[in-house]
Amino acid sequence: MRRRAGGAAVTLARRPARYDVTSFREGLRSSLEVRDAVVRRGERRIVADLSVAPGEVVVLAGANGTGKTTLLHAVAGLLPLAEGEITLAGRPLDADGTWVPPERREIGLVPQHHVVFGHLSALENVAYGLRARGIHRREARAEATAWLDRLGVADVARSRGARLSGGQAQRVAIARALCPGPRAVLLDEPFAAIDAASRPLVRDLVRAVIAELGVPAILVTHDPGGDARSGDRVVELAGLDPEIYPEVP
Ligand SMILES: Nc1ncnc2c1ncn2[C@@H]1O[C@H](COP(=O)(O)OP(=O)(O)OP(=O)(O)O)[C@@H](O)[C@H]1O
């Protein structure tokens, strides 16, 4: 399957990829572009403009309520843009007259809340993306099992999502996002519930897989000293439209 990470072992200590000219040219073709985007949230307007190269992890920073989750949801296709455009690998996802539904975007999302499907087992959660693409059940489950193992949660493979602990659920959500070999990865506070001892390993694993896949990634975190270090650069979200909310800095 195209650009799938497969079951190959990932070296946890691997350094983030640095790009030569060839991969830079490649990057121009497969970056994630959010241009002059406006997303409405109730009476609010979230504004954003950013570009993420393939293999790059952009850390999205900003105070509570500035719209980081809202922006990720717009890129994932869970919320429509009111203005502007989003393209991935040069393909419009949400632009003039074009709106690609979430299931056809091939974007891996680790959500901030309700991270797994509660009624499905951990294994079914992770296999979900491959099954949705028509991959045979046995192959999807084998691949999902390998990903659960990579994330250190193989022992809860048969447990329902609703019965997982917070950290277990976050690991399963990470496995679910990465397993199908996404074209872009969106991580919303993905390590918040993971214990301190395993957090650096999980963080490095995610970083290594994104480099391996060579896809753009956005990481939302409020942990500038720890999690944000696994990013390549920090982008401060412009946030709420200053013309409407002048009190917001
Ligand atoms: N379902 C909703 N309906 C209306 N407004 C919403 C909804 N969800 C969020 N908002 C508002 O949209 C704004 C952006 O919320 P969002 O969750 O994207 O912020 P955030 O930057 O991710 O915050 P945090 O750092 O606290 O997670 C906030 O002002 C919030 O109150």
Automatic annotation (TrEMBL):
Is Nucleotide-binding a UniProt keyword of this protein?
Answer: yes
Alphabetically sorted, this entry's keywords are:
ATP-binding, Nucleotide-binding, Transport
Give one GO molecular function term: ATP binding
Give the matching SUPFAM superfamilies: P-loop containing nucleoside triphosphate hydrolases
Question: Boundaries of each ABC transporter domain copy?
Answer: 32-248
Q: What's the short name of a Pfam family annotated to this entry?
A: ABC_tran
Q: What is this protein called?
A: ATP-binding cassette domain-containing protein
Task: Record the organism.
Answer: Miniimonas arenae
